[in-house]
Amino acid sequence: LLRDGAMTLLHEWESLSALPAGAPLAVGGPAGRLEGTFAGIDEEGGLLLLDRGGTRHRVPFGEIIETPAP
Q1: What pTM was estimated for this model as a whole?
Q2: Are 29 and 59 contacting, i.e. CB atoms less than 8 angstroms apart?
Q3: 3-state DSSP call for residue 58?
Q4: Would you put residue 51 in left (φ > 0), alpha (ψ -120 to 50) or beta?
Q5: What pLDDT band is residue 2 in, cutting at 50, 70 and 90?
Q6: Residue 17's pLDDT band (cuts 50, 70, 90)
Q7: Span 10-30, average pLDDT
Q8: Is the pLDDT assigned to residue 18 strictly greater than 90?
Q9: Beta partners for 27?
């Protein structure tokens, strides 16, 4: 996996994630509480969250505090 580059490793990790793309969640991070849907992980390991208004947020560290049922 490493031979193919970091993005290949990232895509493999995402495929094994308990959070599928589009899963609703709330996170507590440096910007406070954010709610939206899981939009992936960036190349530096930050969680990507899409809020209701369509804005994509990067959460470099924090805690998933809620994964509401759809």
Answers
A1: 0.76
A2: yes
A3: strand
A4: beta
A5: low
A6: confident
A7: 84
A8: no
A9: 34, 64
The counts of H helices and E strands in the chain are: 1, 5
| Token reading at 35 | 């709610």
User: How open is the CA angle 19-41-50, to the nearest 5 degrees?
Assistant: 75
Q: Which two tokens stand for residue 54?
A: 């369509």
Residues in the chain: 70
What is the distance between the alpha carbons of residues 61 and 30, in angstroms, rounded to a whole number? 7
Element (H, E) at 48: strand 47-50
67 Cβ neighbours under 8 A, 6+ residues apart? 19, 23, 24, 25, 26
Average pLDDT over residues 61-69: 82
Q: How far is CA 10 from the centre of its chain?
A: 12
Work out whether strand 63-66 and strand 47-50 pair parallel, antiparallel, or are unpaired.
Answer: unpaired
